[in-house]
From TrEMBL:
InterPro entries attached to this UniProt entry: Hexapep (IPR001451), PaaY (IPR011974), Transf_Hexapept/Carb_Anhydrase (IPR050484), Trimer_LpxA-like_sf (IPR011004)
Organism expressing this protein natively: Massilia soli
Protein name: Phenylacetic acid degradation protein PaaY
The enzyme's E.C. designation: 3.1.2.-
Region forming the signal peptide: none
Gene: paaY
Length: 200
């Protein structure tokens, strides 16, 4: 059962095609669009500003979204938010990626098809141009992204589209096995879900 809480008469909205892990917490003015994936222990605390995940976005394990009163925090279509990232009052544009444990602050905008590297700190108000690689604390634009870079990012996001479907169809709470069974199966993602050699 997903942990969803109303506050001040406003409750979260989750599209039926989105997957939200049961340990994630959604509070108040939260809007989760179609085909989104929200991972374990993610927090979307819409008790001040509105939080929006647009179609196909993912918010991975232990991510936090929050914002100031009256502001929207938005991850646009196919936005990809890596494990442990924090988004506060910012906008992540279409097909952009925020790496693991990165922080993006108030009024910052991560441009379309840009990548914020893991552990980076994007300061308040920073406007990142489209197709940029950004890294550091404070974050700086390091270079333009290539078509190959963007293809790699898009491939990873498609894996999360698939994960949302697989999670809805097959994930269930069970008791752990006490030992490894003989010929233990591996998770089969199919041939289309393995990274092509030229994008590694």
């Amino acid at each position: 059962m997903v942990k969803v809480y109303e506050i001040n008469g406003v409750r979260p909205v989750v599209h039926p095609s989105a997957y939200v892990h049961p340990s994630a917490v959604l509070i108040g003015d939260v809007i989760v669009g179609p085909r989104c994936y929200i991972g374990p222990l993610a927090s979307m605390r819409g008790d001040f500003g509105r939080l929006i995940l647009e179609e196909g976005a993912n918010l991975q394990d232990t991510c936090v979204m929050h914002g100031f009163p009256g502001d929207d925090t938005v991850v646009e279509v196919d936005g990809h938010i890596g494990h442990g990232a924090v988004l506060h009052g910012c906008r992540i544009k279409r097909n952009a990626m925020v790496g693991m444990n990165a922080v993006v602050m108030d009024k910052a905008v991560v441009g379309e098809e840009s990548i914020v590297a893991a552990m980076s700190f994007v300061k308040a108000g920073m406007i990142i141009p489209p197709r940029s690689m950004v890294m550091g604390a404070p974050a700086k634009v390091m270079r333009d992204l290539t078509d190959k870079d963007i293809a790699w990012k898009s491939f990873g996001t498609r894996q999360y589209h698939d994960l949302a479907i697989r999670s809805m169809q097959t994930m269930r709470e069970v008791d752990a096995l006490l030992e490894v069974e003989p010929d233990r199966a591996r998770i089969d993602l199919g041939p289309d879900m393995h990274a092509p050699k030229d994008t590694k």
